[in-house]
Amino acid sequence: MLLQQLTDSIAGLGIWQLTAGNVIMWVISFALMYLAIKKGVEPLLLVPISFGIFAANFPLTGLTGEGGLFYLFFHHGIETELIPPLIFLGLGAMTDFGPVLANPKTLILGAAAQLGVYAAFFTALLFGFTIEEAATIGIIGGADGPTTIYLSANLAPHLMGATSVAAYSYMALVPVIIPPVAKLLTTKKERAMVMTGMRTVSKAEKILFPILASLVIILLVPQAAPLMAMFMLGNLFMESGVVERLTNVSRNELMNIVTIFLGLGVGSTMSAENFLNPKTIYIFILGVVAFSFAAAGGILIAKLMNVFSKNKVNPLIGAAGVSAVPMAARVVHNIGSEANPQNYLLMHAMGPNVAGVIGTAVAAGAFIMAIK
């Protein structure tokens, strides 16, 4: 009897259930940890995501099964669509819409960058993905992790791990992806263009903007309401100047807590059976296509605007229409400074950069409204 119990105990050890797929996922997990810790690639998300992948691929733990700890993070935080809007609350409390209000044309550039979303969407359909999967892959072009996760939860939860890791990876690769696209589509003279100073935006304008933006966007695209309402509420907290405690909690303590749950929840979806398939490779390839087309779309529309406008814009700022805030704006500024050391594009680029956050959230809402 004792021998049988001992035999059963040994047979129940997780090591006997370990598969090659589990080991491969551990390698992927360690690679993401390396990028986050050693290279500083989106560490706030990639550290919990990578550890979530690591833990999710231990056999027999029950962590990701119904009722398991990581399942609870995923089900209650992500599947119920709670965490992404809370992330947007924090983002809103950190976002300055001043550059957009000073130059409203930048809203068009933020919208133009969504070309990458739709380019990847139609390409994914040609690759044989379902319409729900194609929409989820396309949104990677916005380089907005929370929006990607939100859309995945709505349309294709089984792709959440791959699409979210792709989105956050490409956010970190902005300095690698944008410069060649920008230099290909602009001349040195265009890159050296110095833009005129921006007007001062009043406090009243900054307070009214989140209210009016919510009114317009949510009426037109109701499915974008969870993200937009929380984004604009966070911004109103900051701009009102009367709820400093709420502002600080939104962009610090709350943001940090939900980031942990988000990372572990996303990582828990990346078990070997979910992740190790040809679709994952296609998703990462299409993510590059989406991101490149997004940067190109913003640049080309900026050049088109210059044909009809007296107040010219440096076409480079169109590349900042992807919503990787503020990294895309910094990269654009650096490219302009290389062409002309007197060129200061950072604040001008922040306009389309912030507008891109809105554009990607609207695109996600439009997909949900059209497909779900």
From TrEMBL:
Which cell locations does it reside in? Cell membrane
Provide GO CC annotations from the record.
plasma membrane
**Membrane topology type:** Multi-pass membrane protein
**Which GO MF terms are attached to this record?**
lyase activity
Q: Name one GO biological process term.
A: sodium ion transport
User: Where is it predominantly found?
Assistant: membrane
Q: Where are the transmembrane segments?
A: 15-37, 44-62, 82-101, 108-131, 167-186, 207-234, 281-301, 313-332, 344-371
**Which Pfam families does the annotation name?**
OAD_beta
Keywords per UniProt: Cell membrane, Ion transport, Membrane, Sodium, Sodium transport, Translocase, Transmembrane, Transmembrane helix, Transport
In terms of InterPro entries, this protein maps to: OadB_MmdB
Presence of keyword Ion transport: yes
Q: Which NCBIfam families match?
A: Na_pump_decarbB (TIGR01109)
Name recorded for this polypeptide: Oxaloacetate decarboxylase beta chain
**Could you read off the lineage of the organism from its UniProt record?**
Bacteria, Bacillati, Bacillota, Clostridia, Eubacteriales
